[in-house]
TrEMBL record:
InterPro entries: Trp_repress, Trp_repressor/repl_initiator, TrpR-like_sf. This is TrpR family protein YerC/YecD. SUPFAM superfamilies: TrpR-like (SSF48295). It comes from the Bacteria. It comes from Candidatus Collierbacteria bacterium GW2011_GWB2_44_22. GO terms for molecular function: DNA-binding transcription factor activity; sequence-specific DNA binding.
Length: 120
């Protein structure tokens, strides 16, 4: 994935960014979001984002660089870049939401299992 060395006009960048984030904020479904990202991002860009997310989650769980490197197939430099940014609000929000979803799923499974036992 190579970025152009030609800078975009800052005003235009701001306007395009505003439009992009507004579109994302208005998306109603996971399927719609997947469709947009699959069309807007190349496979390489999408995989790069997913790998960074994987690195962040592994590091948040206290896994070693070596473990991250072996499982996600990334360099130590990429891990270090993500690690440097893990304290930033965007990463914190992403991790918080994923943990909340994992917690909710875990408790849903426990409650469902308990109800099934009661009504057997």
């Amino acid at each position: 994935m190579q970025l152009s060395q030609n800078p975009i006009n800052k005003t235009l960048e701001k306007q395009l960014g505003q439009m992009f984030y507004q579109v994302l904020a208005e998306i109603d479904s996971l399927d719609e979001l997947k469709t947009i990202f699959n069309d807007v991002l190349t496979d390489g860009e999408r995989i790069a984002v997913l790998k960074r997310l994987g690195i962040a989650l592994y590091l948040d769980k206290g896994r070693s660089y070596e473990d991250v490197k072996n499982n996600i197939k990334v360099s130590s430099a990429t891990i270090a870049t993500v690690a440097e940014n893990l304290g930033n609000p965007g990463w914190q929000e992403m991790i918080k939401r994923i943990k909340a979803e994992e917690w909710a799923n875990e408790w849903t499974d426990k409650i469902t299992g308990g109800i099934k036992k009661i009504f057997k």
